[in-house]
Amino acid sequence: MSWEQWWPHDPVVKTDSLDPYLVKVEKNKVYWYCACGSSKTQPWCDGGHRGIGIKPLMYIPQTSGYRLLSGCRQSTHLPHYDFSDLWVRANKNVPKAALFTYVACFSFGIMTTWLFHP
């Protein structure tokens, strides 16, 4: 049971896409990252969060270039991408995640046995 099902009183973040956003940013420019998922201009805020209770995050990049920003909004270092979408995907589809984990561990065991066998 997820936290949102157990305690429905907290504001819930919308996640239409779990994939990260690849965006081009400029050094020292202020960006407002949409933390609620209601914006039409993802990943940037357009003011669609009114009445939800979740505020946008200010993001000021230190260098110019391309950045990966979290699409699932479950990252521990928002707005930066840290592969937390893999946990969200696993929680949405537990049997597939369990099968993938089993196959990966089994394959790793076979490979290490073959490598280290005398």
From TrEMBL:
GO terms for molecular function: 2 iron, 2 sulfur cluster binding; metal ion binding. GO terms for cellular component: mitochondrion. This is CDGSH iron-sulfur domain-containing protein, putative. Keywords: 2Fe-2S, Iron, Iron-sulfur, Membrane, Metal-binding, Transmembrane, Transmembrane helix. The lineage of its organism: Eukaryota, Sar, Alveolata, Apicomplexa, Aconoidasida. Its cofactor is [2Fe-2S] cluster. Pfam families: zf-CDGSH. The chain crosses the membrane at residues 97-116. Gene3D superfamilies: CDGSH iron-sulfur domain, mitoNEET-type. Residues 20-55 form the Iron-binding zinc finger CDGSH type domain.
